[in-house]
Prior knowledge:
Bound molecules: adenosine-5'-diphosphate, magnesium ion
Distance between the termini: 31 Å
Strand content: 25-35%
Number of helices: 9
Helix content: 25-40%
Enzyme class: translocase
EC number: 7.4.2.1
GO cellular component, one term: plasma membrane
Radius of gyration: 18 Å
Oligomer: single chain
Order of helices and strands: EEEHEEHEHHHEHEHEEHH
Subcellular location: Cell membrane
Shape: globular
Family: Belongs to the ABC transporter superfamily.
Amino acid sequence: MIEVRGLHKRFGAHTALRAVDLDVARGEVVVVIGPSGSGKSTLCRCLNRLESPDAGTVRIDGAELPAEGRALARLRADVGMVFQSFNLFHHKTILQNLTLAPMRVRGLSREEAERDARALLDRVGIGAQADKLPAQLSGGQQQRAAIARALAMRPKAMLFDEPTSALDPEMVGEVLDVMTGLAEDGMTMVVVTHEMGFARQVADRVVFMADGEIVESGTPSEFFASPTSDRARDFLGKVL
Ligand code: ADP
Ligand code: MG
């Protein structure tokens, strides 16, 4: 579903990604871990071209991501993204947050978009919040709304960049539960997270990044039991 080849990204003199190759199969859940500054967010942002790479290619379901224009907007809709900060539209209701893009980009009627949106809000457990503004919801509810908003575009894959890092601890579980449900339903997912419990239980594969490179990659049981690189051992020593 996602095929990354030879991805390079520099910011001035700093190389954020070097020669990154990554394949994510349909229905696979890949958890990306690694120290701060290792390039995890840059990788996610290159996967839907919020950031343009200096070299390399990204293919989504066989189609190379175009540099710009309508074709990019269409392909970008295939890859839903959820950020640490929930990025909801503050002056729109939760329901409107979910219906705007499907009406504009997918051409749904308001009735279709609202029917979809209510079903998705029920699925993430916040159907009763549909007519509220984001600020009236808890952080965990806002992040679940952000996930539902991404799903409203019917993406082929979902990217999560530290989706629980900004949440109060008591709200982390409800967001991870929604993500676990999505994984069980077969969604293709790339998840950057420091939640090692989620990585162990839900990931099909764990990818460890350091200094802009994928240093190692394996099943959670392989990776956590016997990391092969010093950098991964050092990182796990700090987070586990
Ligand atoms: P991570 O998500 O793993 O913490 P990032 O992908 O955010 O890492 O960043 C990787 C490196 O690239 C860091 O050194 C960061 O400072 C740098 N970087 C990221 N985005 C920018 C930017 N827009 N401008 C300059 N440097 C950036
Ligand atoms: Mg980051």
